[in-house]
Design a protein that fits this description.
single chain, alpha+beta, 2 domains, extended, Pam3_gp33-like
Length: 152
């Protein structure tokens, strides 16, 4: 059942009198807009990742700094720093092996029907930082630095 709002009623009414050909044309235009938006979103995200994972970390390394206070366009002061980050992906064929490994290493508490990827990444990051074992052979792990803004 549709939830009827004034906006919904107005939008529905805007299609009154349209032929099926016109409705299909509107549908195709909307699909094209959606495909374009997905493409542009992907491009924008790629640029965000390039700046935060490559440009700023390299600049910090070049300038030998740990953090810097920056002023955003709205005048807000923020602290810019580069922090280590880990991304973890479990290939489907290793899922059960990973669960066994986590149980064996007293970390079964992070297992649910699925292991939350953020929780697993945080766990692996902590294991790496502490020099503790982690199931490297069961996972696809990407360790990288990423720029982060914090309150100044």
């Amino acid at each position: 059942m549709d939830i009827v709002t004034n906006e919904y009623v107005a939008k529905l009414a805007s299609f009154d009198g349209h032929s099926y050909n016109e409705l299909v044309e509107a549908m195709l235009v909307a699909q094209d807009k959606h495909a374009w938006a997905k493409t542009e979103t992907g491009k924008a995200w790629d640029e965000v990742c390039f700046i935060t994972r490559t440009v700023i970390p390299r600049r910090f390394e070049r300038d030998q700094i740990q953090n810097i206070t920056v002023i955003l366009p709205d005048g807000t002061k923020k602290q810019l720093l580069v922090i280590p980050q880990v991304s973890v992906k479990t290939p489907p064929e290793n899922k059960l092996k990973l669960w066994d490994w986590l149980r064996k290493h007293d970390s079964a508490d992070i297992i649910t029907e699925t292991v939350n990827s953020s929780t697993l990444a945080a766990y692996i990051r902590e294991q790496m930082r502490e020099g503790e074992p982690y199931p490297n052979e069961l996972l696809e792990i990407s360790a990288y630095d990423v720029a982060s803004l914090r309150k100044a």
